[in-house]
């Protein structure tokens, strides 16, 4: 992960020299969203400086929720679901790009940490979704679309307006870790590397050097296990 770590450190210094948010190395740590339902969330930076034609988002989550919840929300003033990773029920994820979505049905597993990666490219409109290091059938979404750059990125909620508008019953409760975002699509090998917590390529958002702000009842705690790989 050091490649991603060093790149993120340089990017932070260049794009947000006066941001006031000190990057933190969250190795072997997690965000714990404690209450259900809640308005707790984590705002993460930096946001991209230019519009996106490609992206990959990866993260791990651990919860016993069976109701809908948002994991990763990238909202702009024009579109609250510019990018949204949403889980409406066990065994199903929705990936939104530009307000439209595709549904991925995933194998139901015993209650444990679940690692997901979502990737999208504008030129083909191909959306990929990986669960615990394994790909699901690819789907088509928003071909030739461009994702706006001026955004608020939130973990643990579904933004229904720019930076807010949360529905408490779409909130996440549980633990979250290993959040990454790239402004390009990862190769299959790097998707598996993200699941295995191996060295990762340059990234926009990286868990080893994350600028974040806790909002509400969410705390940073050590992991309860050495590895989160199932």
From TrEMBL:
<dbReference type="Pfam" id="PF00354">
    <property type="entry name" value="Pentaxin"/>
</dbReference>
<feature type="domain" description="Pentraxin (PTX)">
    <location>
        <begin position="27"/>
        <end position="226"/>
    </location>
</feature>
<dbReference type="GO" id="GO:0005615">
    <property type="term" value="C:extracellular space"/>
</dbReference>
<protein>
    <recommendedName>
        <fullName>Pentraxin family member</fullName>
    </recommendedName>
</protein>
<dbReference type="InterPro" id="IPR013320">
    <property type="entry name" value="ConA-like_dom_sf"/>
</dbReference>
<dbReference type="GO" id="GO:0001849">
    <property type="term" value="F:complement component C1q complex binding"/>
</dbReference>
<comment type="similarity">
    <text>Belongs to the pentraxin family.</text>
</comment>
<feature type="disulfide bond">
    <location>
        <begin position="58"/>
        <end position="117"/>
    </location>
</feature>
<keyword id="KW-1015">Disulfide bond</keyword>
<keyword id="KW-0011">Acute phase</keyword>
<dbReference type="GO" id="GO:0046872">
    <property type="term" value="F:metal ion binding"/>
</dbReference>
<comment type="subunit">
    <text>Homopentamer. Pentaxin (or pentraxin) have a discoid arrangement of 5 non-covalently bound subunits.</text>
</comment>
<keyword id="KW-0106">Calcium</keyword>
<dbReference type="InterPro" id="IPR030476">
    <property type="entry name" value="Pentaxin_CS"/>
</dbReference>
<dbReference type="InterPro" id="IPR001759">
    <property type="entry name" value="PTX_dom"/>
</dbReference>
<keyword id="KW-0479">Metal-binding</keyword>
<keyword id="KW-0732">Signal</keyword>
<dbReference type="GO" id="GO:0006953">
    <property type="term" value="P:acute-phase response"/>
</dbReference>
<dbReference type="InterPro" id="IPR051005">
    <property type="entry name" value="Pentraxin_domain"/>
</dbReference>
<dbReference type="GO" id="GO:0045087">
    <property type="term" value="P:innate immune response"/>
</dbReference>
<keyword id="KW-0964">Secreted</keyword>
């Amino acid at each position: 992960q050091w490649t991603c770590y060093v790149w993120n450190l340089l990017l932070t210094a260049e794009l947000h020299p006066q941001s006031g948010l000190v990057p933190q190395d969250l190795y072997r740590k997690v965000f714990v969203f404690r209450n259900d339902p809640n308005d707790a969330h984590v705002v993460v930076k930096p946001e991209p400086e230019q519009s996106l034609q490609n992206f990959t988002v990866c993260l791990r989550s651990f919860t016993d929720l069976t109701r809908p919840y948002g994991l990763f929300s990238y909202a702009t003033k024009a579109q609250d679901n510019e990018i949204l990773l949403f889980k409406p029920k066990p065994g199903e994820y929705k990936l939104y790009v530009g307000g439209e979505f595709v549904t991925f049905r995933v194998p139901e597993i015993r209650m444990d940490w679940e690692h997901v990666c979502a990737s999208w490219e504008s030129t083909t409109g191909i959306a990929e979704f990986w669960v615990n290091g394994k790909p699901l059938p690819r789907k088509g979404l928003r071909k030739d679309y461009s994702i706006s750059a001026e955004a608020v990125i939130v973990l643990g909620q579904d933004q229904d307006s720019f930076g807010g508008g949360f529905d408490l019953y779409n909130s996440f409760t549980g633990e979250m870790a290993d959040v990454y975002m790239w402004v390009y699509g990862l190769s299959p090998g790097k998707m598996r590397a993200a699941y295995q917590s191996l060295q990762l390529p340059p990234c926009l958002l990286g868990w080893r050097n994350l600028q974040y702000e806790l909002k509400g009842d969410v705390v940073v705690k050590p992991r309860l296990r050495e590895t989160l790989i199932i």
